[in-house]
Design brief:
By secondary structure, the chain is α/β, with parallel strands linked by helices. The protein has two domains: 4-58 and 331-347 and 358-376, Urease, subunit C, domain 1, CATH 2.30.40; 60-320, TIM Barrel. The protein has helices at residues 79-82, 102-108, 144-153, 167-170, 174-188, 203-208, 236-243, 260-268, 292-301, 306-311, 315-320; strands at residues 4-15, 20-30, 33-38, 46-51, 56-59, 61-66, 88-98, 116-122, 158-164, 192-195, 215-216, 248-249, 338-351, 357-371, 374-376. Strands 1, 2, 3, 4, 5, 13, 14 and 15 form an eight-stranded mixed sheet that branches. A seven-stranded parallel sheet has the order 6-7-8-9-10-11-12. Helix 3 packs parallel to helix 5. The protein is globular, with a radius of gyration of 20 Å. Bound molecules: zinc ion.
């Protein structure tokens, strides 16, 4: 019996949390665990060997914002083809399900997918079911007790509470909806993920209701409640939130929530995103988002190093969700979730969510994925 089930040979690691960047290692995997990370493991010791000498290997990518309640939430898409099939080993559904629909999401998505899915439960009990009617236009959906009960029942997989604060979604109920979401977070100890675009509350007012560990997604959206003021300056409340208050600013690219001009203004004034996520859903998967990999490529273009970009889809989201060590790094004893990828030097047209176009010179391309010790070749879910 070979000692390892799977051996990844000659991998150039990009593992920021493990301090292993641009070093070449062999990785021996047994069952779902990384057993050995070493300079040389002999091929005879493994049942299956992958030559990784032409690619980079990072911890499995983590997408903090997707919608995969396929067939139920209007905007959702099939999970495995769009996550694991594109290099993402762990993804967080951002509020597709609420207390009315969550048990189905657990049963038909989380429990049966190859991707590790977790969920932010929407404060609206219907989740993001329909497109035409905002989920908080009727406050009866924001049932605090039912949300708390659901969080308690599904403690393993519900990791936070989601609210969308846009005027056309909350109607007159923005403040009360947010108050109720806050109440669920206080009782359960779970973080809040807040979508701030075009809100009836100002950025400062919303941030006032957020606590350390909470997530401000769509952090580079271009509406009046964004991080850049009308003079092009970063709003001080955004700086304070990220630097002093422990609020995580997450990209959540989406179909309308990422603007190059906002990202450029913010990043040039030192306001960086904490995590890079896609907000992949039905209305952006055919463009402009396509994948987490392309979203990551946009941040290479914006000036982050490859190491920084990888950190924001591995260690940073894992740390935020309290699972760094199990995932988010390449470590003996850790879960064998790995993403194999290339960086292609080629001219590429990059599109944001509001019509902005930039020309990049590098793209990150997923090659294959190991999830829980099992190898997933490209196209396996097509
Ligand atoms: Zn979303």
């Amino acid at each position: 019996m070979p000692r390892y089930d799977l051996l990844i040979k000659q991998a150039t690691l990009i593992d920021p949390a493990g301090g292993q960047v641009d070093v070449v290692r062999d990785i021996g995997i047994t069952d779902d665990r990384i057993e050995t990370v070493g300079e040389e493991i002999f091929e005879e010791e493994a049942a299956t060997v992958i030559d990784a000498s032409e690619v980079y290997v990072s911890p499995g990518w983590i997408d903090l914002h997707v919608h995969v309640w396929d067939g139920v939430a209007d905007l959702a898409i099939p999970g495995d083809p769009n996550c694991l099939g594109k290099g993402v080993t762990t993804a967080y559904d951002a509020g597709s399900a609420g207390a009315d629909t969550y048990p189905g999401f657990q049963k038909y998505v989380i429990d049966v997918s190859a991707t590790r899915f977790k969920a932010f439960l929407h404060i609206s009990s219907q989740g993001q079911l329909t497109k035409g009617i905002g989920e908080l236009e009727d406050l009866r959906y924001a049932d605090v007790d039912r949300a708390i009960r659901m969080c308690e029942e599904y403690r393993e997989d519900i990791v936070g509470i989601k609210i969308r604060m846009s005027r056309n979604i909350v109607g007159e109920n923005g403040r009360e909806g947010l108050k109720r979401a806050r109440e669920v977070c206080e009782t359960t100890g779970l973080p809040l993920m807040l979508h701030p675009n075009a809100s009836p509350m100002s950025l400062a007012e919303m941030l006032n209701e957020m606590r350390s560990g909470d997530v401000m997604t769509h952090c580079f959206h271009k509406s009046d409640t964004g991080v850049i003021d009308t003079d092009g300056k970063v709003r001080p409340e955004a700086v304070k939130a990220t630097q002093e208050d422990g609020i995580l600013f997450d990209v959540g690219h989406g179909a309308g929530s990422f603007a190059f001009e906002v990202a450029e203004a913010a990043m040039s004034q030192s306001l960086l995103p904490g995590t890079i996520s896609s907000d992949l859903h039905k209305y952006n998967v055919e463009g402009p988002v396509y994948s987490l990999a392309l979203t990551m490529s946009k941040f290479l273009h914006l000036g982050l190093s490859l190491e920084n970009v990888i950190e924001k889809v591995t260690a940073a989201p894992a740390q935020a969700m309290g699972v760094l060590g199990e995932i988010g790094t390449i470590r003996e004893g850790g879960c064998a979730d790995l993403t194999l990828f290339k960086v292609k030097e080629e001219e590429v047209e990059l599109r944001d969510a509001i019509g902005g176009i930039r020309t990049g010179d590098r793209t990150i391309e997923h090659v294959s994925t190991v999830r829980g010790g099992r190898l997933y070749a490209p196209g396996v879910f097509d």
